[in-house]
Amino acid sequence: MAGASTSMRLRLPIACIALEVILIILFGVAVEYDHDVSGEAGHKTNTTHHDYENEFYYRYPSFQDVHVMIFIGFGFLMTFLQRYGFSSVGFNFLIAAFSLQLATLVQGFLHTIMTGGKIHVGVESMINADFCTGSVLISFGAVLGKTSPVQMLTMAVFEVILFSVNEFILLSLLNAKDAGGSMTIHTFGAYFGLMVTRVLYRPNLDKSNKKNSSVYHSDIFAMIGTLYLWMFWPSFNSAITLHGDIQHRTALNTYYSLAACTLSTYAFSALLNHEGKLDMVHIQNAALAGGVALGTAAEMMITPFGSMIVGFLAGAISVLGYRFITPFLESKLKIQDTCGVHNLHGMPGILELFTVSLFPKITSDFPASAQAGMQAISLVVTLGIALIGGIIVGFILKLPIYGAPSDSQCFEDGVYWE
Amino acid sequence: MAGASTSMRLRLPIACIALEVILIILFGVAVEYDHDVSGEAGHKTNTTHHDYENEFYYRYPSFQDVHVMIFIGFGFLMTFLQRYGFSSVGFNFLIAAFSLQLATLVQGFLHTIMTGGKIHVGVESMINADFCTGSVLISFGAVLGKTSPVQMLTMAVFEVILFSVNEFILLSLLNAKDAGGSMTIHTFGAYFGLMVTRVLYRPNLDKSNKKNSSVYHSDIFAMIGTLYLWMFWPSFNSAITLHGDIQHRTALNTYYSLAACTLSTYAFSALLNHEGKLDMVHIQNAALAGGVALGTAAEMMITPFGSMIVGFLAGAISVLGYRFITPFLESKLKIQDTCGVHNLHGMPGILELFTVSLFPKITSDFPASAQAGMQAISLVVTLGIALIGGIIVGFILKLPIYGAPSDSQCFEDGVYWE
Amino acid sequence: MAGASTSMRLRLPIACIALEVILIILFGVAVEYDHDVSGEAGHKTNTTHHDYENEFYYRYPSFQDVHVMIFIGFGFLMTFLQRYGFSSVGFNFLIAAFSLQLATLVQGFLHTIMTGGKIHVGVESMINADFCTGSVLISFGAVLGKTSPVQMLTMAVFEVILFSVNEFILLSLLNAKDAGGSMTIHTFGAYFGLMVTRVLYRPNLDKSNKKNSSVYHSDIFAMIGTLYLWMFWPSFNSAITLHGDIQHRTALNTYYSLAACTLSTYAFSALLNHEGKLDMVHIQNAALAGGVALGTAAEMMITPFGSMIVGFLAGAISVLGYRFITPFLESKLKIQDTCGVHNLHGMPGILELFTVSLFPKITSDFPASAQAGMQAISLVVTLGIALIGGIIVGFILKLPIYGAPSDSQCFEDGVYWE
């Protein structure tokens, strides 16, 4: 019975094919090449100076770094579970491949609301679509091991739309700054996912508790994910900034923030263990908090000094979160956060607000207080959409049609993989 | 006896040293730096505008992506075998390091046939050499586990030459379009390899059947290969196109094709399993077919819409191939295709022809029908050289001098690794 | 007792927090953005031509490749040990994150000695800091498994300073050439590390001998490190050269050197085994020697022919070193070199001197003999500082305050990881 109810034999093909066919039709109707993607192809024989200034050459290396973060970074970070490696990396792959297509449409549609016309695609839309996908994968981390792939595709549909609406409100209506997505990507993805996992609360999850842990090699696989996220985070934060010194500075600040964050992560991980032993979960996750926390401020004149302070605090907060807040969320608030996304993406995203306030002169086109106020409003909007959206989507995902695993089948590849 | 006959003690050193010495001599005689590699080195103290327009900056990031595909992508994709991981990644490494040197010479020689002069090397020749190497590694995938490294080096010698001749006929004589190598790399490599494995048919391979399968961690290692191939395929297809919008468009189209391909792969993998479970072999391979199938057309004005249709079909065809055609090839045609290269590289390469025909207006410098006709002739030439060449090389590899493993030693690292 | 003495409960937090706080203060006092990192951020709305010429676009892709080598390359190369994977990749991560911050300060300070003013940071300082970090990680390879993380942080403090002093003497005072760091990075790091491990000699290390070896999957993890180092070495050697043809040539020469090195590595590995079997240790390490040996000469007009000869010799020397010299060093000189850094980084670095002498006309701004003489003096200086510095630092690391593991706890993650 349980086996029958989780079968993906029809559910997954129907979901994938229906979604992909709809995407293809919408792309056919609404999408066209951006001006530096289209062109008089075939007529050229020599490369002109103009060709060298194609946006491709100034964004594509950053895009590829972001792409690696999405598929290898997020995918392998979640392989830490001993019997859920196929699903971690495999469903991450599926959800990401779907989300980036839908995000292109929804983000593009909102962009054209004002101006009309078709949706334009190029390397910038590819980066933005990957960003939105990252937010979906953060939410996936919160419910990892407890959901079916059809549930995750369904969540992705709603989350991509809500993400894009929130992003549109923040960047286009409120003129907030968030190049690296502290709020739009991390805070949104984390709190949305936390609400979903709250609604999907499983009181008897201890049945599969033994499998909700790592083994030796699964932790080393997870370090592949961690390191790619860590190394390429400077590219993530700077991928979509303005060109020139701003992009340069964004990458540089993120690099220093992450380095400082790593040292505080090791320090607090050892300090909080009664034998002084390091916890792989902290290293795999908290060392990345410096990139999250600087998502907004990295493009500002925050200096390496400021970046390192933010990174150091982010690492400390994140380790403390794993040690104290995650158990509290689970036991008191019934939020079962498999990957601890609250510690890596939730709190460091909020830390960003203090960053902007702490460095009042870091931006020059607005009065500092006005910008700080706008960032605060943006954060409230983000939290509102994430929390309410997450609850509603959580209830949608509770419908008994997705083949969700039983409690004893959680964290187990065998349900979905031959 | 069996142990003695497979010893690499003398065979491998002789092969490696002889081949490398010949390569070094030929490089000394025939190769010189391309004009933007050579220069008045040492005289400069400031970077001039001209230096920023060096081809290096517009090709090298793509080259590095391709390089990762060749060594990590192909190498780790083949680590799925439970007891053949060292050989998969290690012989992939050896064959690739050899092939890229030989390819530089043979491709360069054919380029200079018309014009005379020395062979010029630079970042473009590096990409082309890696492409040719990719074709050899595809053939390696067909015979994986059943051949000695000396056999593989020997195969590489012949395949690099035949590949380069075929490529020269297609691109220089027939004016075919094939920037991403649907025909020259994938179709050629696949059918060449299939013929080699046909001639090397082992009727008693079931002796090592147990080892011709994966274990849990070997499948996760293989996903590293899959994901790097998948992420960087846009760079592969666009690495050698003309600069500007064409290169931009090629990467973009490939990105969408792969995303759509991934969804159809998951759909058909679940649909074809009676319990609806996903098959790692499909995910690892078929999800890449969208990159192969768009190798030729990606630079054209095929639109994201067209790219997604091609990708979707490629994924479906590839999964169906693994499910139905591979067993047929093995039982009826005696073609033992270890990695299923027919499904990933063979059929999607042929699908390309239909792509060019289905989108008659996608290229503007030729009448569409003429271009489609030329592509068809090119495919016939490619298949002819691959099939006949593969059979001949197969018989050369049957000579009892290479230390080929016995049937019970197949798929076993212990034969070659301490 | 033993457990208590190795506890990191206070040691590691104190070390990490104290060092990071000092770094942050010094960054606050002494560091400012380089001119193409700083700017009138926020005022711009359009990208100007000038923005496209920001150094960022011509260095950042190379930087990211180097970054991957430091964190994934070195980190995973050392995961070959069966029970030390967490520490290999985890302490590599910690030490590298620390060293790159300190290196920025020390290298920057020495740069400003002549001119005065603040330390400027940008993508070039990031590459140089990663280079210095690489040298520290080479030394880490020599003592791998036998030291505590606090010992390693302490070593890093001293080594970063000595490295920077040596680099300053060579490049700024002696006008030596060493773009890829044959001497400054590899020779220095190797001989420094060998002296440290000599002073830390453990006569009873055979107590943990069983753990000082690999298992099947740990060797495959290590190949991830090897391949990333191999693929990106052309970026490493060329990351900081002058722009234009020099950078192009440096990458190209390194590519050929590594390819030739790989073939000689396989040849000699099989030849030296009495059954002709390949040794994973050789493949993982010696195949990289071609990159080390060409660190200095790669930017010169050495031709692919010359590069391949150097690479071929480097591979052979390195394998011979693993087979004959490492056991000699251990048994006669009491140098326990866990990763065999002498074979990969020590000897190939010295080979560089012969390279410069063998190709007398490869540089045009100095008389060849003068340049060769300067390189010889530089090598002597490097060896002097490395050997004497290593001995002194070795004795500092012998103090019983770092929580060093007992002999039976060596090569064991359990001491430091939960």
Describe the 3D structure.
3 copies of one chain form a homotrimer. Chain A is mainly alpha-helical. Helix content of chain A is 68%, strand content 1%. Chain A is built from 15 helices and 2 strands. Chain A has helices spanning 2-6, 11-30, 49-52, 56-77, 85-115, 123-143, 149-173, 182-199, 216-238, 245-271, 280-285, 289-293, 303-332, 341-358, 368-397; strands at 31-33, 119-121. Chain A has a two-stranded parallel ribbon with strand order 1-2. The longest helix of chain A is centred in the N-terminal third of the chain and has 31 residues, at 85-115. Chain A is globular. The two termini of chain A are 18 Å apart. The mean pLDDT of chain A is 92.
Q: Would you identify the regions of chain A where 5 or more consecutive residues have pLDDT less than 50?
A: none
Distance between the termini of chain A: 18 Å
Overall helicity of chain A:
55-70%
Report the total helices of chain A: 15
Spatial order of the strands forming the largest sheet of chain A: 1-2
Structural class of the secondary elements of chain A? Answer: mainly alpha
Total strand count of chain A, please? 2
Q: Shape of chain A from CA axes?
A: globular
The main sheet of chain A comes to:
2 strands, parallel
User: What is the beta-strand fraction of chain A?
Assistant: under 5%
Largest interface: A-C, 63 and 70 residues
Oligomer: homotrimer
Q: What is Rg of chain A?
A: 21 Å
Q: H/E element string of chain A? A: HHEHHHEHHHHHHHHHH
- Indicate the mean pLDDT of chain A: 92
